[in-house]
């Protein structure tokens, strides 16, 4: 399948193996893994003009890792992960072996798709501070997309290295058991209270203004939740996922429905947690 001209133009602005300066001491190198779940590819961020912190080394691709090492020029000090999905963390161990830098991540271990060979040198959690010499990062625990998801906030610049909390030009998949829609929306709400001036997502371009971006993602999720409730009202009886999916995602191409089914389960799980829906033997029913 060949990408459309528009997709070709977009991907051309994210050349793999190439450091792209984004200002405020940030550079981006995009991994060569574009696709339906990764958009233009996974962004690896290099932070700092002195010693460098690398966030999300991405896939285990020799040219990508060589590009990161070349851009760091012997100054790699920290390898930070937003989470351990297979498009974010597999390159970490090779970078650590090549440089002696430690790998930092959250302690939760994923049960679904994950980097099965992942090893952590130092654990991070909510509120931890990383002193990286000429800049500091505050760690924000933001579960939802994954139960070990972290964001990193540079309070001096206002940059939020956001991982898969956001996705330029789309929305991230929330896939149980590691994804939880209630946690995801809660993480978005808490980010509204942080002094963020620019969001740097793992896929796509920087996002601004942050308040508008966050409100739009929450609104999208709540609109989809309302469609789930409307679908349950329409059936007015216990309904299976297979029956509900084309009703709730009627606006989405059928080719995307297998991915949409994961987020539908997450929406249903949230409604169960909220006490609005009951689940029994693979069927769901609206309570009130």
Characterize the main sheet.
Answer: 7 strands, mixed
Radius of gyration: 20 Å
Distance between the termini: 45 Å
Shape: elongated
Low-confidence stretches: 1-5
The CATH superfamily of the largest domain is Ribonuclease Z/Hydroxyacylglutathione hydrolase-like
Number of strands: 15
The level-1 CATH class of the largest domain: Alpha Beta
| CATH fold-level name of the largest domain | Metallo-beta-lactamase, Chain A
Q: Which structural class should the secondary elements be placed in? A: alpha/beta
Order of helices and strands: HEEEEHEHEEEEEEHEHEHHEE
CATH architecture of the largest domain: 4-Layer Sandwich
Strand percent estimate: 15-25%
The share of residues in helices is 25-40%
Q: What count of domains describes the coordinates? A: 2
Largest sheet strand order:
1-2-3-4-5-6-7
Please state the average pLDDT score.
Answer: 93
* H/I helix tally: 7
What would you say this structure looks like, in words?
- Strand 11 (159-163), helix 4 and strand 12 (198-201) form a beta-alpha-beta unit.
- The protein starts with a helix and ends with a strand.
- The chain has helices spanning 5-12, 62-72, 92-99, 181-191, 210-235, 241-248, 257-273, and strands at 20-23, 26-30, 43-47, 52-55, 76-80, 102-105, 122-123, 129-131, 136-141, 150-154, 159-163, 198-201, 239-240, 277-280, 283-286.
- The chain has 288 residues and is of the alpha/beta class.
- It has two domains: 7-208, Metallo-beta-lactamase, Chain A, CATH 3.60.15.10; 219-286, Winged helix-like DNA-binding domain superfamily/Winged helix DNA-binding domain (Arc Repressor Mutant, subunit A, Orthogonal Bundle).
- Residues 1-5 have low confidence and may be disordered.
- The chain is built from seven helices and 15 strands.
- The strands form three sheets. It has a seven-stranded mixed beta sheet, covered by helices on one side.
- The longest helix is centred in the last third of the chain and has 26 residues, at 210-235.
